[in-house]
Design goal:
Elements (H helix, E strand, L loop, with lengths): L1 H13 L12 H5 L13 H33 L4 H16 L2 H22 L10 H27 L2 H9 L3 H32 L11 H12 L2 H30 L1 H4 L2
Helix pairs in contact: 3-4, 3-6, 3-9, 4-6, 5-6, 6-8, 7-8, 8-10, 9-10
Length: 266
């Protein structure tokens, strides 16, 4: 699985006692003994728990990259420079129009072809394989950034231009005005849309199973094929995705309250 997957295995062993599925007080440990999802060699619990860790790590690693690229796209989209606005529009149109799975294939296979061509140009003829986790992260970040860029662009346009002028009048400069005045308002305005994009990103991680990454869907799919219990294991996958969505909703609700703390104090 490559270096990144090996790192996940090491972290999984180190933090095994905190595993909510196969840890000492994990769901599969307590309720799955003697069943198909029991932990250890007798069942598929450990494999599914590893898939949950990979899915969660992929979503968490993709989110900041997608938001950063989306923020830069939004800045370009509201720039006074026409070429930057055009480039931002082309970028969001392409990656919002392409299916996520097609984008994943382009990144995964296209990066291999590109790197292979560059290395071949300098005389290296060995085979190059791109790590599936890295390819999935880049592909999902590109798609997420196209949507988050539009959300942030709308938030930028909702902030009155007088806010920028006020920062200039106080002598803050454009950079400090952006950090101290604009960004806090941008987060508050864009947060509802970004919350929806996080939920979509969490579901879109299932696409990486196509390129061999051991996420929830791939692990439960392998278990379903081997055990001939497809309905059981795919229902397990449904439950895990719903559990991640519910946990995310609690965390996002806290972030939303935090972002609106200034309004509550008025």
């Amino acid at each position: 699985m490559g270096g990144i997957s090996s790192a996940f295995a090491s972290l999984g062993a180190f933090f095994g006692m905190f595993d909510p599925l196969c840890g000492p007080v994990g769901i599969f440990t307590l309720l799955g003994e003697g069943t198909l999802v029991s932990c250890g060699d007798a069942g598929w619990g450990d494999e599914i728990a590893f898939g949950v860790a990979v899915t969660t790590a992929l979503a968490l690693a993709t989110l900041p990259l997608g938001l950063l690229i989306g923020f830069l796209v939004a800045l370009a989209g509201q720039s006074e420079e026409k070429s930057l606005r055009l480039a931002a529009g082309i970028y969001t149109t392409i990656f919002r129009g392409l299916p996520e799975l097609l984008t994943l294939f382009i990144v995964y296979y296209g990066m291999q072809i590109l790197i292979q061509s560059v290395l071949g140009f300098v005389g290296y003829d060995g085979r190059v394989e791109i790590n599936a986790f890295l390819a999935g992260m880049i592909a999902l970040a590109v798609v997420n950034s196209a949507y988050s860029g539009e959300v942030m662009l709308s938030a930028f346009r909702a902030i009155p231009k007088g806010q920028y002028e006020a920062g200039d009048a106080l002598g803050l400069g454009r950079g400090r005005t952006m950090v101290l005045v604009i960004l806090p308002q941008l987060v508050r305005i864009a947060l509802p849309g970004l919350v929806n994009l996080w939920m979509i990103l969490l579901k879109d991680t299932s696409y990486v199973s196509i390129i061999g990454l051991s996420d929830i869907l791939r692990q439960t799919g392998v278990a379903a094929k081997v055990s001939k219990e497809a309905f059981f294991f795919y229902m397990i996958a449904c439950g895990l995705y719903l559990a991640l969505a519910i946990l995310s909703s609690f965390a996002l609700r806290f972030i939303d309250r935090w972002s609106r703390r200034s309004e509550a104090s008025r």
